[in-house]
Design goal:
377 residues; alpha/beta; Aspartate Aminotransferase, domain 1; globular
Amino acid sequence: MAMINFNVPPYTGKEIEYIREAVENQKICGDGPFTKKCSEWIEKKTGTAKALLTTSCTHATELAALLLDIKPGDEVIMPSYTFVSTADAFVLRGATAVFVDIRPDTMNIDETLIEDAITDRTRAIVPVHYAGVGCEMNTIMDIARRHGLAVVEDAAQGVMATYKGRALGAIGDFGCYSFHETKNFSSGEGGALLMRDESYVERAEIFREKGTDRSKYYRGQVDKYRWQDYGSSYLPSDMNAAYLYAQLELADEITSARMSRWNQYYELLSAIADRDLIELPYIPEECVHNAHMFYIKCRDIKERTLLIDHLKNKDILSVFHYIPLHSAPAGVRYGRFNGEDRYTTRESERLLRLPMYYSLGANDVEYICDCIREFYD
């Protein structure tokens, strides 16, 4: 049979039509008609005050760091089990990344360890919603309020997921989405910054538009735009937004298809988990996830490596995920781990991600599970 890839970017069939429309509109730079449609879709779906499309989730997080005026000497608390962009956005501003351990059940930051990591230099907490499963946001928001800290949600994997009925990315002060090709909805590269407080919007637009008030100019609020502050170019092309909007229109359908495959994995692999040979994902009762990924946990890194090789020999591409940031050269240089690493390294070495994408078929999932069962039998 043909190789089953780990990821296939989502495609609905309308992407090319919408890109053609963007070209014919003769407005293919940032903040064109499709960019506005995507932003409005996010705002309506999440209830956030304002959403601005960006060129990546990395840039969305950088914008959050700029809006918080993060400076050298500041500290930002986050999990070590995350992508480098979570730390990069703040390290670029001179801050120290303070890593805390994760919960072994959800792979999210352990909310009970955050308070111990707070110092008089702490400025923000950055929870990462791993696999589209929400962190314990009520506790995190309470800690932030009591200590006067900002909360920046890294919801790169969290579009269409909720915590206690609230959209991930719209609970903290800022939320950051990713529309990378590996995400549930994609523009190839892309992201969005969500803002709960409208008072940040004007400055965010200036930072995003190279430090100018060009957004006001396009709305007819000023007769010419001028350099107002420092900034950079964080605007995606409207052609990227056109590609993305074709998927956002079908967000419920895409999510439903992914959820069907996720549930199929869970059902077919439950017998192996019941034999204590693997662990399956845990979804807290207060969370509705988005089937961003399906992973299993092997006994240890040696077993995981053998299983990856076994699946590859069966024409199935499976992968492990993050190398904990605190163990990386830059993590040692720009951050520190607060407390004991009980679970971050151990659990990261056990986790194996299985193929998961919109066009993945039921027969594919059945074959993958058969091959995993064969390995353990």
